[in-house]
Amino acid sequence: NAGVMQNPRHLVRRRGQEARLRCSPMKGHSHVYWYRQLPEEGLKFMVYLQKENIIDESGMPKERFSAEFPKEGPSILRIQQVVRGDSAAYFCASGTASSGANVLTFGAGSRLTVL
Amino acid sequence: QKEVEQDPGPLSVPEGAIVSLNCTYSNSAFQYFMWYRQYSRKGPELLMYTYSSGNKEDGRFTAQVDKSSKYISLFIRDSQPSDSATYLCAMGDKKTSYDKVIFGPGTSLSVIP
User: Chain centroid to CA B70: how far?
Assistant: First the structure.
């Protein structure tokens, strides 16, 4: 079991470019969460998706950010027209119910730097 | 008031010390509680989870939950340099169709040999 796979691990973009971050959940998991972590801050919830369905995007900025989880392939977090404030670590997690608790398994993260 | 608050760090202790990490929360709907450990430039990894008030022990780690006071703690006995990391508390709210997990801001711990 390869765990939650995220790529790229590091991404550098100039202001105005697009960033695409990919996440493949653990085998057998059909839902993913995306979190953003700014330096010296905790994990902030962004979006929760199931296959072909966005369940909760209450943490997503209203503009420039979008997420999808197609029937086939990884989940993608897309940031259009990046700005310096988008520089952060973006973590994906997949979960499963275990004894009633949703225990998340995280990927190693994708670190976005906007120049 | 933030949903989840955590003692600010950084925390520095000598090897062998007992470490106490704490979180408070405001949302009484939270039903289960977790502690994650995050090493520098890595993803968080689950240490412990529980969904009832009381203590849960796993080796050198003890998680304590007091739902009446909306307070959770993680105790680390005989701390080791390898315990140096950021510790994140997390809380789950089971909604109708899925579980929403909220994280505290984290406490950075350094265990000095």
Answer: 13
Query: CA-based Rg of chain A, rounded to a whole angstrom?
Result: 14
Local confidence band at B50 (pLDDT 50, 70, 90 cut-offs): confident
Query: Which chain A residues are within 8 Å of B94, Cβ to Cβ?
Result: 100, 102
The reply to whether B75 touches chain A by the CB within 8 Å rule is no
What b/e sequence results for B92-108 when a residue is b if at least 16 CB atoms lie within 10 Å of its CB, and e otherwise? bbbeeebbbbbbbbbbb
Q: Who has greater pLDDT, A113 or A98?
A: A113
**Residues ≥6 apart with Cβ < 8 Å to A39:** A88
Q: Which residues of chain B make contact with A91, given a CB cutoff of 8 A?
A: 43-44
Whether residues B34 and A103 touch (CB distance < 8 A) is answered with: yes
- By DSSP bridging, strand A53-56 and strand A65-68 are unpaired
Predicted local confidence at residue A95, as pLDDT: 78
More confident call, B108 vs A96: B108
Residue of B43, B102, B106 with shortest CB distance to A45 = B102
